[in-house]
Amino acid sequence: FVSKKRCKPETKGDMSEHAREPLPENATMRDIFDYCKKHNIHSLAQGMIELPPPELLREILSVIVSGTTVHQYRARQGEEVYRDAIASHLNSEWGAKAVTAANIMATQGVSGGIIASLLYARAKGVKHVGMLQPFYTYHKLQVHSVYGTSGTAECEERSWGSVQGACAFINGATTTIGGVEVEIEVNWEAIASALDDGVGALIVCNPINPSGRVLKEEEVKKMVQMCADKGALLILDECYADLTFGDVTHYCPMHDSVVDNVIVVRGFSKVLGVQSWRVGYVIASEELIAECVALHDPIYISVPITQHAMAVYFKQDADNYAEHRAELKALMWANWEVLAPAFGKAFGWTPIAPEGTMYGCFVHNEKSDMDAVQKALEKGVGICPGGIFYGGTHPSS
User: Fold this and answer.
1) Fewer C-beta within 10 Å: the chain N or C terminus?
2) 199 in Cβ contact with 231 (< 8 Å)
3) What's the rounded mean pLDDT across residues 273-278?
């Protein structure tokens, strides 16, 4: 939820009748979700697929977990059957033959792939990792965790954004929605300035969490080239690649050929509702994959047995996956068409229609983002304040 100016969430002030205690300072989406659960408040604050995985996929897993080798460690790069199934699936979707099993590394969910990518960036001497505002909150936490820096450290303002430890927060471009100026678009000039200033890697969601924006093919190619020109690494979090709406299509830079300075991280937590299965994958060059395997292995040891179920499912039941995906997207969009006018009627907020992901943003006219959160709590619903998706220190609007 985005206000006129991005603002740091506040935790002081009177709370609604639903709130028995203040929200945690600098609360993440998971913090707010836990808070709502504790106080029996309906929560829309976390991306949680509440539908079960496809029945066919669950049946496949039930057979696999009854095997006699279910307890054993899996291959460090991921089982070959899994990597081959993923490569075949991607090439089938793209109508290409660019990706092979050697370009795939199994990961402990998308988060495991992001951590491995950040460890790779640090090993290559990258000092600052850039995030485009608005950014996914856990990317900031993951950068601080890998680099050993603090999210409470003082921010250094730059012409293109701000720096806090290893995190480089790159300003977005503004647009006017509902009469309010909102920083929600890609700022190419700021990206170029950040790369010129020594930012050695970018981590970007596409589709973008939380705005729901989907980068066009020409925008992705432009970002890849900008990073390549500066010798910078581009880490693409494509967790929502399969969740786009209407005529919007998603473009992956690995579509035509494997790009040396790009790491693509994907998973199934959202599209298949398997958040706790902890299975995802990285797409990169063979050389880069080999280095990432060595970094991923000491932390995660191996990816769970669930990768075998995914391998069978994508090899044998691709039609079932396509059908499930289509039904999920239709359901999400139907939900948005109900929620958008409902929030507009209840609060007077302006919806920003998403092109992808599973999130919806609104522009409010409250004094601050936390005032908007409190107003929603009074109606018995939890939401995320827009300020958590921006870095630096900014006054409340």
Assistant:
1) C
2) no
3) 92
d(CA 344, CA 367) in angstroms, rounded, equals 17
Q: What is the DSSP letter of 97?
A: -
Task: State which amino acid sits at residue 59.
Answer: E
* CA–CA distance, 175 with 182 (Å, rounded to integer): 5
Cα–Cα distance for residue pair 55/59, rounded to 1 Å: 6
Helices (H) and strands (E) in the chain, counts: 11, 15
CA atoms 76, 288, 233, 48: torsion sign: negative
- pLDDT number for residue 128: 97
Mean pLDDT of 112-121: 96
**pLDDT 10s digits, 56-100:** 999 999 999 998 888 888 989 999 999 999 999 999 999 888 899
For 119-137, b/e burial (b = at least 16 CB within 10 A) is: bbbbeeebebbbbbbbbbb
Coil, strand or helix: which one is 201? strand
Number of Cβ within 10 Å of residue 270's Cβ equals 22
SS3 call for 387: helix
Instruction: Kindly state the greatest CA–CA separation across the chain.
Output: 63
Q: What is the pLDDT of residue 60?
A: 96
Long-range contacts of 220-228 (CB under 8 A, 24+ apart): 220/251, 220/252, 220/253, 221/253, 222/188, 223/191, 224/253, 224/259, 224/261, 224/262, 226/188, 226/191, 226/192, 226/195, 227/195, 227/201, 227/202, 227/261, 227/262, 228/259, 228/260, 228/261
DSSP state letters, 121-183: HHHTT---EEEESS--HHHHHHHHHHHT--TTSPPEEETTEEEETTEEEEPPEEEEETTEEEE
Q: What DSSP letter does each residue of 3-39 carry, written as one string?
A: -SS--PPP--S---TT-SSPPPTT--HHHHHHHHHHT
Average pLDDT over residues 358-362: 91
Q: DSSP of 229-282, one letter per residue? A: HTT-EEEEE-TTTT-B-TT-----TTTTS--TTEEEEEESTTTS--GGG--EEE
**Rounded Cα–Cα distance for residues 290 and 384 (Å):** 38
- What single-letter amino acid sits at 364? H
> Average of pLDDT values for 152-180?
91
